[in-house]
Every structure is written in C-alpha cells, then in structure tokens.
Design a protein that fits this description.
Elements lengths: L2 H5 L8 H7 L10 H15 L6 E3 L7 E4 L8 H13 L8 E4 L2 H9 L11 H5 L10 E3 L5 H5 L11 H9 L5 H5 L3 H19 L17 E10 L2 H21 L2 E13 L32 E4 L24 E8 L8 H13 L7 E13 L15 H16 L9 E5 L9 E5 L2 H6 L20 E13 L7 E4 L2 E16 L7 E10 L3 E7 L5 E7 L1
Parallel strand pairs: 3-4
Antiparallel strand pairs: 1-2, 2-7, 3-7, 5-9, 6-8, 6-9, 10-11, 12-13, 12-17, 13-14, 14-15, 15-16, 16-17
Helix pairs in contact: 11-12, 12-13
Length: about 550
C-alpha cells in the first residue's frame, strides 16, 4: 500500500470494494509473491553496502530496519541516511529514511509529513530536529526524544491487536501520546500483556532490533569435461558427485539446500541457433539471517522503498572464467524442492528429472552446480544403521517432484493437489484443492472418523458431488415447492423434497449471495441439491452419492 493510499484512508486488510470506497482513484495491482520476494532480497543485499545490520520487516514488504550505531567515524547518521536514501531510490523515487532510538519511532517518522520550521529551542523543534541540509525525505529523531516524537502520531502507527486498538478508540484515545500517559497497571489489568506491550511501544520502549547479516561463502563447483558430450548420462555422473560434495558442506554448516542451480557450458564452436540457447545464468543471492539481539542504546534506521520486480537483465552474469578458454554459451536452470533438503537422493532425483526434460541445443563441455539459497537444517529422524535412509514421505515427495517436472514446467502448483476444507457457508467454497506436500501431509494428523453416535446403524453417509459451475435448469414448482426438474434433456420427478434452507453472506467482500436450497429425491436417481436465487433462476449444484 502506498503512502498516498494510506492518507486517503486505505488500510491494510480492507477488501478491494472497501478500499475503492475510500479512494476512487485506487489502482489495484495483482500480488506476485515471487517477484516481491526477489525484490526484497535484492534490496536487502544492496542495503548491506551501508550497514551490516539489515532486517526486512516481517509482513511489510518495502520496509527495512537498518542498524545505525557506530557510524560517527564515517560521517555520522546524516551520511548514513543519505547513503540509505540513495540505495532505496533505485527502487522508488519517493523512498523515505528515518533514524531514531527505536524501531517504532523510525517507522512513524517514515509516515510523517515533512517537518515544519519551528522556533529553535521549542519542544516541537527538539522532537522533529532535522538538519536543514538534509532532504525532506530524511528524518532524524534526536536521541532520547522517541516518546515526544510519537506523542502526536495516530494509534495506527503502533503495532497492537485490533481489539485493543478498537477499545482504545472507543474510549476516545486517538494518539500515541494519549496511550502513553495511561497508568501501566490499569492497561495490563484491562488488556493483559498485549496491551502493556503497546503501552511500552507508545513510550518508545521497543525491544526489536535489526539483525546482523551473516554472508555465506558461495557454494558452487565447476567441472570441465574431457570431451564435448551430447547425452545426459555423463552430465548426471558429474552432477551427482558435485552435488554430494556441496550437500556435505551445507550439512557441516547446519544448512539445507533451498535451491540447486545447474549451469551447462556449451561448445560455441559448433553450429547451432544462438537464439535457442540464450544467456540465463541467474545471479547468486543469499538469504540474510536476522537476529533480535542488540543493545538498548542502538540506533535504528528505516527505509521504505516500494518493492518492484527486478528486471531480468540485472540478473545476468557471465559464466565462470575457469572453464575452457574457447567461445562458450551457458544455460542455467534451477531446481527448487518443496522444502529445503540436505539429502542427496531426493535432490538428485529432481535434478535428473530436470535434465531428462531439458532440450540442450549443443554439446556440453562443462558443468557448474551451485546452491544459491539455503535454509537452517531441519532435524530428521531415521535409522542410524542405514546411511541411505529415506522415509516414505520423502519417497512420495521425490515422485511428486518428477511428476511436477513433466506436468507442471511453469510451476503453477495445480498438478498434484489434495483437498482442504474451509470454514465457510458458501457450498462451492467449503473445500478447495491446494498444492500437495508429501512431507507436510505425513506430519499432519489424520482426520478423526465420525463417531458412532453421528451415524445410524447400517446407514452409509452420503457424499455431495459438486458441479463446477452449477448448471442452470428448469424446475416445476407450482406451489413454490419443487416437484420436477428438467436437467440435461431429461425430466426428473421428485419423490420427496426437504427445504428451503436459506444461505447468505459474503456481502462484505463484494460478491454476496442469498440462496434457498432444496434437497430433492429424484425417482430412481438419488438425491439432488437445488437452489434458486433472488431472480428466481434455479440451479443444480450437485448430487449425493
């Protein structure tokens, strides 16, 4: 959400109709999780040039906390703020930077309007002191003045549960200062630990700290083949050995591979269409680790460039110079398992599936295997006497990976799915299909069977088979009760009907519904689920099997 939308009254969590009611000129853009993640990682890496402590704010893409302590010998906080602003403006021209003693005050300063010119020595001047030479997009909150700075800010800038915020507003509290002057004992007695945490934040007491980033060494291995090969078998032989060595190094560091990149160096001396190859070597981007450790006197800086997808041209790198010194072209593909892995067999199965489906337009003269992204190593359980132990869930996940490589090359996540129940009254949305994760399914508890008291002896529970979408039909209902239905060219007479059952809702999200449902027993066909809407049109939504 942009600053202009926020000032127009748009808030996070609103539905699109609610937001458009607040801001008629609102521009709604689709959320691309992969593009946002890539942009956040790229911006985080760039901000490391200014400070070793950089933390993307969880749940708020486009906001970072940056450590601002210890820069006195490097130009001080003003120079750090200018450097951060220069970096942030690569992604958004209206980026803002604020430096304060606490993260909550720094965040509030990025939302504040440009400081007004006030008389020197006044309390307002002390709390909003920004050197005249700095741009208006930089705010420096003086040391020890977080509480005075936060006092006039709205309560929305202090993190707290929604029920606590609503209760404070019902009591007439609109600003952070109004919350800060309350008695802490009364706040804790009425709202518990969550209310006391919000009270402390209102006074500038924020325990959150930017984390120190640990930059890992590049994990890659390159092999020059003795002769150009056109089949995948020699490449797989080399790939397995190099992947095993990289995984051993990851396990030694307590890490697991979240992605494996395979780069094939092709012999450019042969004649083949250059456009069929391209240059797609993806750059190495490490995932920074964060920590909550830090001293109470640390200064924090916050930057707010809007995350945008990084153009693909910026991710192009030249191939390794250690390979054969002849004209070359390289192709890179990545394997991303459903969860980070540190075992050879499941990762190698996915790499082999990728190579078997990969059309290579020229002979291969070199192979580079790298692990561009890692994650903390999980503690798996198994038989210590079987080094090649693999549980059933991992075997299933390996099979899923091979099927996805063949049937889902675009990684849409709609090929291997499993049903998941949802808590809603709209019939067609009571269940949905989600991407299947064998490991997560194996760890989940099995659904409890229905108790004996919920079922009659000798009666098998019927299962509703839904039609997607529901089919429009003609219903004979002379007295308002369905007696027969014309469906798919046939007339079905009803022996008995039960209803109506009124279901309505979802008006708050802009696509509300109001339906009268009937369950009818068709002669010789079984139970059919019908409904009609306010316009008197009838639909068959499914049948009971």
């Amino acid at each position: 959400m942009s600053l202009a939308a926020g000032r127009a009254g748009v808030r996070a969590g609103m539905t699109i109709p609610e937001a458009q009611a607040r801001c008629a000129d609102l521009e709604v853009r689709p959320w691309d999780e992969h593009a946002i993640t890539d942009a956040v990682l790229a911006a985080t890496t760039a901000l490391l040039a200014a400070s070793p402590q950089v933390t993307p704010v969880a749940g708020t893409p486009g906001m970072w906390w940056v450590g601002a302590t210890g820069f006195d010998a490097l130009g001080g906080e003003e120079q750090l703020a200018r450097t951060l602003l220069t970096i942030a403006q690569r992604w958004h021209p209206d980026a803002r930077v604020a430096i304060a003693d606490s993260c909550v005050a720094a965040r509030a300063a990025t939302w504040a309007p440009p400081p007004r010119r006030t008389a020197p020595g006044s309390a307002v001047h002390a709390a909003h002191s920004t050197p005249a030479a700095l741009p208006s997009t930089i705010t420096l909150v003086p040391r020890g003045h977080c509480a005075p700075y936060l006092a006039p800010a709205p309560l929305g800038l202090v993190p707290m549960p929604d029920d606590v915020r609503e209760a404070l507003q019902m009591l007439g509290l609109r600003t952070v200062g109004a919350l800060a002057v309350l008695d802490p004992g009364d706040v804790e007695h009425r709202w518990g630990a969550e209310g006391l945490t919000a009270w402390r934040l209102a006074r500038g007491d924020d325990p959150r700290r930017p984390g120190l980033v640990r930059v890992e060494a590049a994990r890659s291995a390159s092999v020059e083949l003795p002769a150009a090969v056109e089949s995948a078998e020699p490449v797989l032989f080399v790939l397995r050995a190099q992947l095993q060595r990289l995984l051993h190094a990851c396990v030694h560091d307590g890490r697991a591979a979240a992605a494996v990149a395979i780069t094939l160096v092709l012999d450019a001396g042969r004649q083949y269409p250059i456009e069929d190859i391209g240059s797609e070597l993806v750059g190495h981007t490490e995932v920074p680790e964060t920590s909550d450790d830090g001293s109470a006197g640390d200064r924090r800086a916050e930057t707010r460039p809007a995350p945008t997808p990084v153009p693909s041209a910026e991710r192009v790198r030249s191939p390794s110079s250690s390979l054969l010194g002849i004209p070359q072209r390289s192709i890179t593909r990545e394997v991303r398992p459903a969860r980070p892995l540190a075992r050879l067999e499941p990762l190698f199965d996915q790499c082999r599936a990728l190579l078997e489906s990969w059309r290579i337009p020229a002979p291969v003269i070199g192979v580079t295997v790298s692990v561009p992204a890692t994650a903390p190593l999980a503690a798996d359980q198994g038989d210590l006497l079987v080094p090649s132990w693999r549980d059933a869930a991992m075997n299933a996940e390996a099979v899923f990976a091979r099927l996805r490589a063949v049937l889902d090359p675009d990684n849409r996540g709609d090929v291997i799915v499993h049903p998941e129940a949802r808590d809603t009254h709209r019939v067609e949305e009571t269940g949905t299909w989600v991407n299947a994760d064998a490991v997560a399914l194996a760890a989940a508890a099995l659904p409890a069977p229905p108790g004996a008291s919920a079922m009659l002896p000798g009666v098998t529970p019927a299962v509703l088979r839904l039609l997607t979408p529901p089919e429009a039909v003609e219903v004979e209902a002379p007295h308002g009760v369905p007696g027969a239905v014309w469906w798919r060219g046939r007339r079905l007479s009803f022996v008995s009907v039960h209803g109506p059952e009124r279901l309505s809702g979802d008006w708050w999200r802009g696509d509300g519904y109001a339906r009268d449902y009937w369950r009818a027993l068709a002669d010789g066909e079984g139970d059919v689920l019908l409904y009609h809407e306010a316009d008197a049109r009838w639909y068959v939504q499914g049948w009971y099997d």
